[in-house]
Amino acid sequence: MACRVAPADIDEAAYLLPEPTVAAINVAVAKARAVRADSEEIIVAADTLVVIDGEVLGKPASAGEARAMLERLRGRAHHVMTGVVLQRGDLEWAGVVTTRVLMRNYTAHEVEAYIARDEPFDKAGGYAVQDETFRPVERLEGCYLNVVGLPVCAVAAGLNALALKVTGAGPPACAYCHRGRPLVARSG
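and the corresponding structure tokens:
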């Protein structure tokens, strides 16, 4: 089976809705529909949101926004929600995976070094859980791959729902999460 990557050229902010769970799905649906191709393809689209105090933190557009987001998250818990949409012909499946994340109490100097490496940009909430240098997360409850941005357990559930048999899927943190964690870790 061949696969291809097709970036969805959409304004993600235009698809955000007030309710974070619905917003995550809505943006993922918009991405999937933007790349819709032939009816034989299976389209997988996802969008990850960071939610703290009921507010969605998007992708920072500047160093100042990144700094503000990371300072707000420091030493606090928040939720990461990823909306996942799979399409096959006229069939569409959607789901959301939520993970509770507790950030460590990193220093202002660490934040500045992280920003200087241009790491916070194009990341919801301005951070990457897998960054081996910054290591912003103290612990998480749920699916690690969800925090990275693609919960494989949800993709497997969607494939099963579209009648494409996938085995080994389970609730977060499932075997996919545990096997996938080392694959996305970066060396410092």
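(Above: one complete record from the training split.) The longest strand covers residues 91-103.
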